[in-house]
Amino acid sequence: MSELFDVTCSQKSNITEKFRTRNPIFVCVISYTETSQVPGITFAGANPDLIKYTPAADSEFLYHGKCFSIPGVPATPDGIPTPALLTRTALLMGKIPCLVVDSGSKIKPKIPHISFGITHGRNIQFEPALELFETHQAFEYGKLLGQQLSMSNDLIVVGESIPGGTTTGLGVLTGLGIDANYKMSSSMPINPHDLKIHVVEQAIKNQKIPPDLQDPFKIVSLLGDPMIPAVAGIATGVMQSGSKLMLAGGTQMAAVLAFMHSMKLSLKNICLGTTSYVTDDKNSDLEFLAKTICPDVPIMSVNPGLDRSTKNGLKMYDKGVVKEGVGSGGALITMLLKSNGSLNKDTFLRNIEKEYERNIEKLLV
Known about the structure:
Blueprint: E1 6-9, H1 15-18, E2 24-30, H2 54-64, H3 84-94, E3 98-102, E4 114-115, H4 132-150, E5 155-161, H5 165-175, H6 193-206, H7 216-223, H8 227-241, E6 244-248, H9 252-262, E7 270-275, H10 276-279, H11 286-293, E8 299-303, H12 312-315, H13 328-339, H14 345-364
Parallel strand pairs: 2-3, 2-5, 3-4, 5-6, 6-7, 7-8
Antiparallel strand pairs: 1-8
Helix pairs in contact: 2-3, 3-13, 3-14, 4-7, 4-8, 5-6, 5-7, 5-9, 8-9, 9-11
């Protein structure tokens, strides 16, 4: 595989063989947290008013190659597109089915999807993210879904779309006693670590959260978002059914791992799948977080090769903008695992650029 794509693994054993797949499925969990409205916290969406539409628009793009909730696709004003472009291309090339799960999205997507029936997350600076029963509901519904998916799929790949998710992820990791300060990733080239830390500190202070709080569900309810318990639930259902699971994403998925580990749940058949833009990022440390939580969970990382693109908006990924999202790294790795490396960088890049021309360039003219 590595001859065609730059795929690396954090462990020496043959992890790619362990997670080889014939019939994977990709699940995208879309959520929203009002914490994303803190100025400077996220790059998602073209402007703050559109942030709440990003998860719905991302999921619509996965299905149709276009969005219905917003005109165009989620992108920065200068044409840096949502990573859903990468995800959709990988899923199409790999003939991988996709399922969208709404766990607390503020704007409901205009596509067929599964709803967990919970509200969107609130701004953790001032109030709990979720009611405790909603956190339990997201987890239990996720577990049921994971069990069902395991009956027909040998690898379940779970990605997410939630603007501001690294900040709420930091909140959960902090609440669970893990030092994640200055280790969370960011969609922005200059990572606003101090702002994220301040938000979490304010949340702990304003909500009067005791330092000895042990209940992981209460910690997620107070400091997290609706994505974390939903993804953890899906992963738990998959683990209990004996299938394999890939958490497709960056440092937000460390919060999912920590939540599961705190409940002493099995992490035996789980891996992390992400882009090299995350693992090579000098301003975050996914490997440290994963090793701190559970050293046995491997990280697979892929370089999408966007540095060779002729499109400036795509080349910016290689320069530290966006980096990951909508499970893009995991989707690409899964495409390679299923195809046994028969698909190459040039074909992938050409297809990505076609999507870019059709959805981004025509809007910039």
